[in-house]
Design goal:
Helix content is 38%, strand content 18%. It is built from nine helices and twelve strands. The chain has helices spanning 22-33, 64-71, 86-93, 129-145, 170-187, 208-219, 234-245, 261-266, 273-288, and strands at residues 38-42, 77-81, 105-108, 113-116, 121-123, 152-155, 160-163, 191-194, 198-202, 223-228, 250-255, 269-271. The longest helix has 18 residues, at 170-187. By secondary structure, it is of the alpha/beta class.
């Protein structure tokens, strides 16, 4: 799937791929039949933005915003659901003040924060006290574990993450840190969420599944598409499965990664990373034009 440089490209309907599963085909059909009651929900890193060694340098694929702006006016709502702080995702995504995205919502910190494009307002809860305690102890833990070389700590406000991608042996550092980080999180009332060469410590009850279920309920959606790339997206995949069992059709899209096979196995449709997600968004916009 190729890249596109602007939203004036040819959105020919024959570009729309066919989901591999019956449930996925039913979800896509419901979206296309009643787009005015469809929610499009997407992860950020690895889905709308390519994975990079330094998350601070992550930016949305150059065609992601034009593709979203082409699709958003034709569906009920578009939501970006991310573990990042909402304002960081808005900045890295370039989502503010974009014609066509007036009703975009960014659910940051797994839904704990919410940014609305229509008003530019951000709502956020008080931080969990365990996050500050963990933050203070992490440097010493990394040093004692011997896994501090090349690993680094990402401050996420309501959570904190340890990245191993830049370590001499990223996978070995990741595995070395799993148990001590789990113990640290448990002592301070947090949980550990593993991802693509990252271990995130955050309060329990914060996940993309809970955020997606609440958003679909609040919007009264009749169908939902969710696209993600990492283990943190599995709760959202499970939420779509629950919604399906309750009569709300859904389409599960994996932004393909060889690092995370669990998501591929559960997806109705696998696309080629953020460029493939962009292609899919454009194709949907073309079918709904």
């Amino acid at each position: 799937m190729g890249s596109h440089q602007d939203s004036t490209r040819d959105d020919s309907p024959d570009r729309l791929p066919t989901p591999a599963t019956r449930a996925g085909r039913e979800g896509l059909d419901a979206l296309l039949t009643r787009p005015g009651r469809a929610v499009i929900a997407l992860d950020f890193d690895g889905t709308l933005a390519p994975i990079v060694p330094d998350p601070d340098q992550a930016r949305a694929h150059p065609d992601a915003v034009p593709a979203l702006a082409a699709l958003a006016p034709r569906v009920a709502s578009v939501a970006v659901i991310t573990g990042r702080p909402a304002e960081v995702a808005v900045h890295h995504g370039g989502f503010a003040d974009v014609p066509g995205l007036e009703h975009l919502v960014v659910l940051g910190h797994y839904g704990a924060e919410r940014w609305d494009a229509a008003t530019g307002t951000l709502t956020t809860p008080d931080p969990h006290p365990g996050v500050a305690a963990v933050r203070a102890e992490l440097p010493g833990l990394l040093e004692r574990s011997g896994a501090d070389r090349g690993t680094w700590i990402e401050e996420k406000g309501h959570a904190v993450a340890v990245h191993t991608r830049r370590a001499p042996d990223p996978r070995a550092a990741f595995e070395t840190l799993r148990a001590p980080l789990a113990d640290l999180a448990l002592r301070h009332g947090l949980i550990v969420e593993p991802g693509r060469m990252v271990l995130e410590l955050r309060p329990p009850g914060m996940d993309k599944g809970a955020a997606l279920r609440e958003y679909v309920r609040d919007t009264g959606a009749a169908s939902v598409l969710y696209a993600g790339d990492d283990l943190g997206d599995l709760p959202a995949f499970a939420a779509v499965g629950e919604l399906r069992s309750q009569g709300t059709p859904g389409l599960l899209v994996c932004s393909g990664s060889d690092e995370v096979t669990d998501l591929r196995k559960r997806a109705d449709l696998v696309v080629e990373g953020p460029p493939g997600v962009v292609e899919l968004l454009y194709a949907l916009a073309g079918h709904l034009a």
